[in-house]
Amino acid sequence: MPMLVSFCEWLENTPVGMFISGSTWAFPTIESIHVFFLVVVVGTIAIVDLRLLGVASRNRSVSQLSNDVLPITWGAFLGALTTGALLFSSKATHYLGNWPFRIKMLLLLLAGLNMLIFHFLTYRDVHKWDDRSITPGAARIAGALSLLFWIAVVGFGRWIGFTVR
Amino acid sequence: MLAEVAKFCDWLSLTPISMLFQTVEWIIPAVQSVHILAIAIVMSSVIMVDLRLMGLMGHSQSISGMTRRFIPWVWWSLVVLLLTGLILITAEPRRDLLNPVFQAKMVLLVVAIVVTAVFQEIVRRNMEFWDLSPSRRAGALATAVLSLLVWTAIVGCGRWIAYVEHG
Question: Structural domain boundaries of chain B?
Fold first, then answer.
């Protein structure tokens, strides 16, 4: 923890961190770009999740849909990560101590873990259930958890703005 | 005109329902979160259709198939956006109605709705419309670029409302 605090203190005092916190337009601009990328991340992940849950895109195979959608998701995630890091650098110590921020980071970790488990275990035999509208239980659980985690990420993300000082 | 809007804002912000939204602390963040989730559905649906129109992805599905899969979600999400938006306006009328960025956002929204509705109607009448000639393929590209630009500007305005001085 002390290492994390001193890292955040250093980050706030880098030219980038100081520029963003000192400028009137930099933070809102980067934040708008962050919102754009994050809605694309959440929305495109939801498209795959709803297919896994058998709610939408049932006429398309899971692998085909994933191959169409997930490159967009990854591109947008990279954008959200970069802009998020820039926003963080402007008030790093404040975010570090902010509970909604901490919970959001934990939820991102859980969403990533859920995705890894799905990708390396459940998805391995996708050829057996690719075209079925009812997917195996493990895939449905992964889809439901993913939706839940990402909805919560948005909620806690918005909450940061109301609580960080 | 502006004075009347200001008067309406002051009246609205003193109604019991507005006062309730103002005093219960979790209402605004929660409603904003739902608003953002609905934007996520709109943006990703629009991106799916537009990237397909531009020929950048999804060749395994037709333009009309893509339209039928995603555009209805845009309309349903817009209903959610309208309702949550109305709650946010009721909670803080001056912050929105007297805000030039909010006004710009509403103009852009009308443009986006018209572009999306016209596009959907064209595809409904003739499923192959966009593939019939090179000039129509150019039209598809232009429609997709316009749609992406307008929706992205709407998201940007939405966030900037919070940062602009208002009456």
Answer: 2-163
Residue A134 falls in which region: left (phi positive, over 0), alpha (psi -120 to 50) or beta? beta
d(CA A97, CA A101): 8
The per-residue pLDDT for range B88-104, each reduced to its tens digit, is: 999 999 999 999 999 99
Nearest to B37 among A36, A69, A154 (CB): A154
Check A40 against B43: CB less than 8 A apart: yes
List the single residue in A47, A60, A161 with the smallest CB-CB distance to B44.
A47
First CA to last CA distance, chain B: 13
CB contact under 8 A, A162 and B29: yes
Nearest alpha carbon to residue B74 among B11, B133, B17, B120: B120
What ipTM score was computed for the predicted complex, to two decimals?
A: 0.95
Helices A99-120 + A137-163 axis angle, to 10: 160
pLDDT < 50 positions in chain A: none
Segments of chain B scoring below 50 in pLDDT: none
Whether A48 contacts A143, CB under 8 Å: yes
Spell out the residues 6+ positions from residue A84 whose beta carbon is closer than 8 angstroms to its own.
A34
Q: At what angle do helices B27-53 and A137-163 cross, to 10 degrees?
A: 120
Compute the distance between CA of residue A129 and CA of residue A123 in angstroms, rounded to an integer: 9
Contacts of A28 in chain B (CB under 8 A): 159-160, 162-163
Of A18, A28, A36, the C-alpha closest to A75 is: A36
Q: How many CB pairs under 8 A join A and B?
A: 80
User: Which value, to the nearest 10 degrees, does the dihedral of the CA atoms of residues B64, B65, B66, B67 take?
Assistant: 50
pLDDT at B128: 80
- The predicted structure's pLDDT at residue B79: 98
